[in-house]
Write a structure and sequence with these properties.
By secondary structure, this protein is mainly beta. 7% of the residues lie in helices and 38% in strands.
Length: 367
């Protein structure tokens, strides 16, 4: 049946900050309001990226729809392409202009999407797509040209993944010039990060990072969300890793607590090695609550105006969501919240700028 499927994670976090600060403050803030065909197990809108066609000066939104749908009962995952030059009415259903079907049997195709730039130099940006176990590099011109999957495929890669993993549900571009990107591989135990390089001939893995040894993160599904950004101002992108199930013993007045969530920042200078170093110690939330899910969503700005917070600098900041956090002002449980963080180069720590509690109903899961 027709219907709207809305997931409030990173997108809701970005909506919040856009309402408070200038739109240009945060990168990667493409916002889409559309609806599509779904089945009971579909994941419509799980991942969204923009795609530019420089030959026609047109922009497209590419949206995933993995798992079976009424129009696709065989279960092949698919991605929808919406022409952004056409008007979008938030109160009506808009059908995609193009439906691009994934490979046979790939019912989780579209598990993650990443714009990797114009790899094949044809004037249209290309994308990396995950199906949970493999990665595909697809020609943007092939996608918007409605070509068969085999014609649009530039290359594929099946890295060694952790059993029961969710490969590529989150991906982050580290070096646009060299087309190097990070791919998450979260699991109940032993989560990993794969560092991948794309070229006109395909995909290759150049590093495979064990998150426990690299960062000390041990929570189930550590790395469920990753985000790239130059956190320390050295012109090299670092990697922010969310671990919403990270456990720690929190003392009074908040504790004793165990699972509260955390983030870790891996230093970009060492990401191409098997043992990257932490830019700063693991950061746990300033207002910890049991199972608050801190680290479930992350946004990074490399040039954020901090004058609203009494600081005269414009620098990189990290916004982190905690969707299960309660509102301490109203004692309402599970409203959700966000913390705004910065890297303190003097102490070498991640420090709190401000925290925000959602003034909404219980179980809104804001952030």
């Amino acid at each position: 049946m027709m219907g709207c499927f809305c997931r409030f994670g990173l997108i809701s976090l970005l909506f919040f900050f856009i309402s408070l600060f200038p739109f240009s403050s945060f990168a990667d803030s493409s916002l889409v309001g559309v609806c599509g065909m779904q089945g009971p197990q579909s994941k419509f809108g799980k991942s969204v990226v923009s795609l530019l066609d420089y030959t026609t000066s047109r922009a497209y939104f590419v949206m995933s729809n993995s798992n079976p749908t009424p129009s696709n009962p065989s279960g092949n995952g698919e991605i929808y392409i919406f022409d952004s030059t056409l008007p979008i009415n938030a109160y009506t259903i808009q059908s995609p202009q193009i439906t691009f079907m994934g490979p046979a049997g790939g019912n989780n195709f579209g598990n993650g999407l990443l714009n990797v730039g114009d790899i094949d130099s044809d004037g249209v940006e290309d994308i990396a797509v995950s199906d949970g176990t493999s990665l595909y590099l697809l020609s943007g011109s092939g996608i918007i040209g409605s070509q068969p999957f085999s014609n649009a495929l530039i290359g594929t890669l099946a890295p060694t993944v952790v059993a029961g993993s969710d490969l590529g549900s989150s991906m982050a571009l580290l070096d646009p010039a060299q087309v190097i990107f990070a791919v998450n591989d979260p699991a109940a135990m032993g989560s990993r990060i794969h560092i991948i390089q794309a070229s006109a001939t395909g995909l290759s893995e150049i590093a495979n990072i064990d998150l426990f040894y690299a960062s000390g993160l041990v929570g189930a599904n550590a790395g469920i969300v990753i985000k790239a950004g130059d956190i320390d101002g050295d012109a090299i992108k670092d990697l922010v890793v969310g671990s919403p199930n990270e456990a720690t013993l929190v003392p009074a007045p908040f504790g004793p607590l165990t699972s509260v969530g955390a983030i870790a920042v891996l230093d970009g200078n060492s990401l191409l090695t098997q043992t990257p170093s932490l830019l700063a110690p693991i950061y746990f939330p300033s207002q910890p609550e049991q199972d608050e899910g801190f680290g479930s969503s992350i946004a990074v700005s490399e040039s954020f105006d901090l004058s609203s917070f009494g600081l005269s600098t414009s620098e990189s900041v990290i916004a982190v969501g905690a969707p299960n956090r309660g509102n301490p002002n109203t004692s309402t449980p599970e409203t959700g919240g966000i913390e705004l963080l910065r890297y303190d180069s003097v102490s070498g720590n991640i420090s709190l700028i401000s925290s925000f509690a959602a003034n909404v109903a219980s179980q809104s899961y804001f952030g």
